[in-house]
UniProtKB/TrEMBL annotation:
Family: Belongs to the cytochrome b5 family. MAPR subfamily.
UniProt-recorded Gene Ontology molecular function terms: heme binding; metal ion binding
Transmembrane segments: 36-56
Gene3D superfamilies documented for this protein: Cytochrome b5-like heme/steroid binding domain
Keywords, ordered alphabetically: Endoplasmic reticulum, Heme, Iron, Membrane, Metal-binding, Transmembrane, Transmembrane helix
Subcellular location(s) per record: Endoplasmic reticulum
SUPFAM superfamilies noted in UniProt: Cytochrome b5-like heme/steroid binding domain
Organism: Aspergillus brasiliensis
GO CC list: endoplasmic reticulum; membrane
Domain Cytochrome b5 heme-binding stretches: 76-178
Protein name, as recorded: Cytochrome b5 heme-binding domain-containing protein
InterPro entries in alphabetical order: Cyt_B5-like_heme/steroid-bd (IPR001199), Cyt_B5-like_heme/steroid_sf (IPR036400), MAPR/NEUFC/NENF-like (IPR050577)
Amino acid sequence: MSSPGNAILHYNNTSIKLTSIPPGEAVPQTAEVMSIATPINLILLSLFVVLVYLQLRPKAPVSLPKGPPPVVFRTFTPTTLLPFNGENDAPVYLAVRGRVFDVTPGKNFYGPGGPYENFAGRDASRGLACQSFDEEMLTKDLKGPLDDLKDLDNEQLENLQSWEERFSEKYLVVGKLVAEGDPEAKNA
């Protein structure tokens, strides 16, 4: 029942007819099986796995930077303000119209070696008003009364107001400046 070049294969009650290709005839093309394991697919799969891992891995706990230590508002006299000049890692304070500002963030300007270093630890009101950074603008008698600034003209007072506003916006007020004989000086 099989013709020449044909055969019948019986396997598990199934018959499969096998035919041979006569010589000289073209062999039919077999279907190629496409594999998904191509190099580009493997690279894309690896990239996908890495991205998924980066998204799903546990995150390191976020640590917030520490803020500046709390500063207690206090009363200063010219002599108790003097050590706050930035030397020996001390904070830099200066006073403007009786308000004491912590200008430590601007230590490059107000600390040792800065252009305004004469004002560090001192009442800078007159020097700022007159736009002079000379030592002669500073109060000489630290035990005497505070400079009342009554001899300043309108332009100088405007300069001082401008500086005071700038300090208020940029720096913390850490205290007030009173004269040595003031009743509040006992708290200094």
